[in-house]
Amino acid sequence: MTLNPTNSGYRTLALAIALAVPGLALAQQTPVTEAVASFSAKAKAQSGLSAADVANPYVSSSYYDASTGLTHTYLNQRVNGLAVFNATGAVHTDKNGKAVLLTQDFMPGAAAVAPSATAALSAEQAVAAAAKGLALPRPAGLQRVLEGRAADGIVFNKGGISEENIPVRLMYVRVANKLVLVWNVSIAQLDQEHYWNARVDAQTGRLVDQNDYVVSEKATFRQNVMEAQAQRQIRPIAKPVDMRAVRSAKGVTGQPNSMTVIPVPFESPVLSPRVVVPFSSTDLRYSPYGWQVGDSKAPAGFFADSYSLLSTGKQLTRGNNVAAYDDNASTTSGGGTAGFTTVASSPDGGPTRDFDFPFVQTQGPRDAGNLAAGITNLFYWNNMLHDVMMSKGFDEVSGNFQYKNITGLGLGNDQVRAESQDGSGRNNANFSTPADGTSGRMQMYLFDNTAANALTVTGPAPAAGTYRFAGVSFGPRLTKKPISGKLVLVNDGVSANGGDHGCASPFVNAAEVAGNIAFIQRGGCPQLTTLNPRATNAFATKVKRAQDNGATSVIVFDSLATTNLVNFGGTDTVGIRIPAIFISGADGFKLREAIRAGGILNATAALGPDFDGSFDNGVVSHEFGHGISNRLTGGPANSSCLNSATGNQTMGEGWSDFFALWMTTRPGDIGSTKRYIATYDSGQPYATGPGFRNKPYTTDFAQNNYTYAQLGTGAGQYQTTHAVGEVWATVLWDLNWQFIYKYGYNTDFFSATGGNNKMLKLVLDGCKLQVCNPGFLDGRDALLRADSLTNRAANADLIWNVFARRGMGFNAVQGDRTDGTPKVTGIVEGFNLPPTSKVIVLANKNSAVTGSSLEAYPNPAQDILTVRTQLSSAAPMQVTMVDLLGKTVLRSVSVPVAQMQKSGIELNTSQVAPGIYMVRVTTTSGTYSTKVSIQH
């Protein structure tokens, strides 16, 4: 059964035909034609492009934004009748058709460096070449299902290698200063790990370039200092839970037409009990037919049986905005479309639509009640995200996710497929965002509950006791081959300190190791990669050596005497058949000492109940956020405008973190509070983290001192996707709190009032206006432009001051741009404001700065007080500390302006008596002060 027959390739092709045929839909075409003409004229005049460069651009999408009164028209450069991949532009016009903003990244002189538009490979051969380049199986039974010109696109069936039909289109792609003729091929891998948009050389079939519609978090998820790299840990893929059996596990607090969930804005079960909520948001403007297929507000026949499964008589977690279901069934594809088409994969609320299910964390995520509760929570949060974001302008015409678009604008058939407890991995989450008209897919995984993993050791004191452990990604799962038996310290006869590193085989004590648990110290074997180059890491090689010596299982302890735990990832390439775990060095040396003293230790490992990612509402919001930023940047027909290649100024992760923080901000929160991402999934305290990021999100510069210079390739600088995004989210979070301090906080997330709501609207408007593949300063400028167009620049000074504080001021330089993408190289931070802007008071309630343009931290201070400011001065600043009577306690220090703006000055307060003091900073434009407390 084909549930998503309308592929994005069909829609793009239809639009291209409509725009190419004179007289077709003339009433709609005229504004677009005028916008294109305006773009071509202005781009040529402003950018030095030739007439040929801007002639006949391809219109990918154009829509009227009712929330701002602007019309957004997005274009692609065309050469020889073919689009140039991500050589994009846009013209934004007001209600009168006047162009108010033009952006473009067209390639100058493109025609001169473009090869012939005649391809040597056929479209069919291009699909095979793309599959080969992506290491996928060769397509089988490939057939065309929609014909068209090569320049507009041809659509093939799935060919046995894709979950969706395969659109193919002939185009050019920029490579350095030249153009290469390519076939663009989109393949949604059957294992759901990737949804490729690949470009293969149309002459040779070589893979030239690719981007992935799936944005995954696995590279950054961590638990304390434990790197959670493993994708198939030592947990089993559980047997399917038939949701028909869940009815007997129903709770008692539910009501008809309701769900029991962790409500907005609470981040997880740690912060709020589950409560009963109705089956729709408080504002029906955004889901007028309700959230669930059985809602009486939906017209008869609104949902097709193939989607809602109404013919079964079941009431499931499916509706116009999202279908949520269990996807644990398969380790390779997570069930694929099977979960989407199976009644038993979604909770059944029964005739009264009572979705109340018990949740007891200690019973594990595959408990029938827990599974149903998690899916219900995932369904609720996706619907709330849909409605809240629609209230801020992410609506049908701009590419949101809906089964049917009620207005008839935009493209439907693309509700979010929210897959709970996905079986294709662990310790991860991702979101796939094809172009408008094809479903977004959210995959939420299970997470290791390392804090509850228990290694029980019996034997003499003080070794006897319970210890934490972490898993590995290779070998059998503990539920199939438990770790239980005598602990034997290996002796390899060659490594230092008694030979317990397992560096050589056979072991000196192989007879003793045989039939028992091999106890091995991490590291100490620099020759391992030479001895076994096929091993993915030294850990795997050590486990294989223990297996060769007859061990039933392996426990590796860290070589550093700390409490750190590490999950070891990688793929088994050496044939490991025994289970293995990892314990800390502090615990390992303690057990080793007992064994060497003659003690006999026996150990048994028991897994803690996993955490279900469907209950971490911050992570759910983060994943949904990828769909927002990808659909809005460059228009709904282009989901390739936020490429996440290493070394780029990739901001998608930053927007997603911002959305996660925004959706989980509670009344009473303040900007200086430290916020973390995914503390629930990590099994960490909400208030202390550290979650998945390097630093907490906070306006307190003492806790998060990121500036634009954090991006780069030097030691300690960031260039990977998530780390770069973390810096972008930091400045957005700062600006969010300045909006709240200026306009207040509104608990009604659907309202237009309140600083939080104004900020979210500004961010979405900025995404619509910014260039394709933006850098940080492009993103800043888009926010300024959005504020100018929609708020008459009421917040321009505030925006400039916040960005300047983080080194993204008027004199900052964005850095190198290659193939239309800004890199982290060449960045120059700057703290200046534009000549027309003024320094304003940046509020920072309940923190070091109160009503001042100075930052002084920590406050209270002990021995060191840092003073920093974004003030400007024509001469070095003078910094002085005085008591409340005006007596100088620390003499004036002269500090260069650039230093004060970037890192500030550290004052030694170790000899200052405890009390309240004033710090004064004198500039050429005046003297500013702030109050500080000294405590020893």
Automatic annotation (TrEMBL):
Keyword Secreted assigned? yes
Q: Which cofactor does it need?
A: Zn(2+)
Molecular function terms, GO-annotated: metalloendopeptidase activity; zinc ion binding
Where does this protein reside within or beyond the cell? Secreted
> What ranges does the record give for the region Disordered, renumbered to this chain?
416-435
Q: Which residues form the Secretion system C-terminal sorting domain?
A: 857-934
Query: Which InterPro entries does the record match to this protein?
Result: FTP_domain, Fungal_virulence_M36, PA_dom_sf, PA_domain, Peptidase_M36, Peptidase_M4/M1_CTD_sf, Secre_tail
The protein's predominant localisation is secreted
| The FTP domain, residue ranges | 59-105
Which residue ranges traverse the bilayer?
none
Polar residues composition bias: which ranges? 421-435
The signal peptide here is: 1-27
Q: Which Gene3D superfamilies match?
A: 3.10.170.10, 3.50.30.30, Neutral Protease Domain 2
Q: CDD domains under this entry? A: M36, PA_subtilisin_1
Keywords noted in UniProt: Hydrolase, Metal-binding, Metalloprotease, Protease, Secreted, Signal, Zinc, Zymogen
One family name in Pfam for this protein? Peptidase_M36
For this record, the Gene Ontology CC terms, alphabetical, are: extracellular space
Q: Name one GO biological process term.
A: proteolysis
Q: Could you tell me which residue ranges the PA domain spans?
A: 484-590
Q: Which NCBIfam families match?
A: Por_Secre_tail
Query: What family does the Swiss-Prot or TrEMBL record give for this protein?
Result: Belongs to the peptidase M36 family.
What is this protein's name? Answer: Metalloprotease
What organism does the UniProt record list as the source? Hymenobacter lapidarius
